[in-house]
Amino acid sequence: SRYKDLIIIHGKNYAPQDFEETVIECSELIKYNSVIAFSLDEQEEEKLIIVIQLHKVITIAQNNELVKNIKKRLLTTHGITAHNIVFVTRHGIPLTTSGKLQRRRCKQQYLSGTLPLLPLADET
Questions:
Q1: CB neighbour list of residue 121: distance below 8 Å, 6 or more residues apart
Q2: Are the C-beta atoms of residues 100 and 39 closer than 8 Å to each other?
């Protein structure tokens, strides 16, 4: 099933774990096993989507900063631009009972709009 999770962008194969580990290194807010990477086929092009579970609410400024840092890190590390980075609430990342990431389920939730998105705190 690892093969099914493979991400193909510009004809190159990537393991989702490669992107996920890179994202985890971007911030201490991002914990191990709380990032899912998958790709969507849009207009004949594979787009990289990153879903990140955070354990606390962040401000719009923190959100923008985090997105910027993650996009920059993915670009410098893998040469790939993330099409979309989405933050979900605690327990927002679907896991199996044994704690493995459920990438396909996460992708389905993303597509159906049922991911529990993290609310952003208003600037104070």
A1: 57, 58, 59, 60
A2: no
* Class of residue 1 by CB neighbours under 10 A (exposed 0-12, middle 13-18, buried 19+): exposed
User: Which of the 8 DSSP states describes residue 82?
Assistant: E
Residue type, 12: K
Tell me the pLDDT tens digit for each residue of 72-110.
999 999 999 999 999 999 899 999 999 999 999 999 999
Locate 81 and state its tokens: 């631009």
Whole-angstrom distance, CA of residue 82 vs CA of residue 104: 18
pLDDT in tens, 5-52: 899 898 899 999 999 999 999 999 999 999 999 999 888 889 999 999
Q: For the full predicted model, state whether its pTM sits above 0.70.
A: yes
Concatenating the DSSP letter of every residue in 3-59 gives GGG-EEETTEEE-HHHHHHHHHTT-TTEEEEEEEEEEEEETTEEEEEEEEEESS--B
